[in-house]
Design a protein that fits this description.
Layout (H helix, E strand, L loop, with lengths): L3 E3 L8 E4 L8 E6 L7 E5 L3 E5 L7 E5 L4 E6 L7 E5 L2 E5 L7 E5 L3 E6 L5 E5 L3 E5 L5 E5 L7 E6 L7 E5 L4 E4 L7 E2 L5
């Protein structure tokens, strides 16, 4: 239970920023808004969504996260929008985590990411890697994922077509074509 800490030197040293609301909080999920980098969302072990609008200095409770939460991502366009990947599907909150609307239901979603390119990607265990449009439309990118599904998906800020993730078996994999094909980073040489 450390609350929020920050590094300015690539992890060499850390500075305490705040304890979170009624903390120090053990944040299980944390995400900096792609739309406004001063906005941070954190979800503790109690499932409460906490939101900071000043880079983590002060916090407010904005709602309860969906049950069986796995991952969160912020909208690339609206700092009030938040996605939640759960064992029961993918959910969207348009009001800072106060209420949630299902985008995908009745199937686990193992990870969600809003990339630097403005595309929201998720792994639906029924369809594979998908993108989610502004209106909630789902587009399948690839059903052929390393080890069956992905965890901890992220888009690089330099090249929006370059994705990185952990496979279901914990292998680090990358894609240079927005998730259509994947390569093991530590391939035998």
């Amino acid at each position: 239970n450390m609350g929020v800490i920050r590094t300015n030197d690539a992890g060499q040293s850390w500075t305490h920023v705040s304890d979170g609301l009624d903390g120090p909080v053990d944040f299980h999920n944390m995400e900096v808004s792609r739309a406004d980098p001063t906005v941070i969302y954190g979800i503790g072990h109690d499932g409460w969504v906490q939101r900071s609008a000043d880079g983590g200095q002060t916090w407010e409770a904005s709602g309860q996260a969906p049950k069986k939460l796995i991952d969160i991502a912020t909208s690339p366009e609206d700092a009030a929008q938040l996605y939640a990947a759960t064992e029961a599907g993918l959910f969207l909150s348009a009001d800072r985590g106060a209420t949630w609307t299902p985008v995908i239901e009745s199937v686990p979603v193992s990870t969600v990411d809003s990339g630097a390119d403005g595309v929201v990607r998720a792994v639906d265990l029924g369809q594979g890697l998908i993108t989610v449009g502004n209106g909630g439309e789902i587009t399948r990118v690839s059903g052929d994922l390393p080890d069956g599904y992905l965890l901890f998906l992220t888009t690089t800020s330099v090249d929006p077509l370059r994705l990185a993730a952990l496979s279901a078996k914990g292998r680090l994999v990358v894609s240079d074509d927005a998730g259509v094909t994947w390569t093991d980073v530590l391939m035998d040489k």
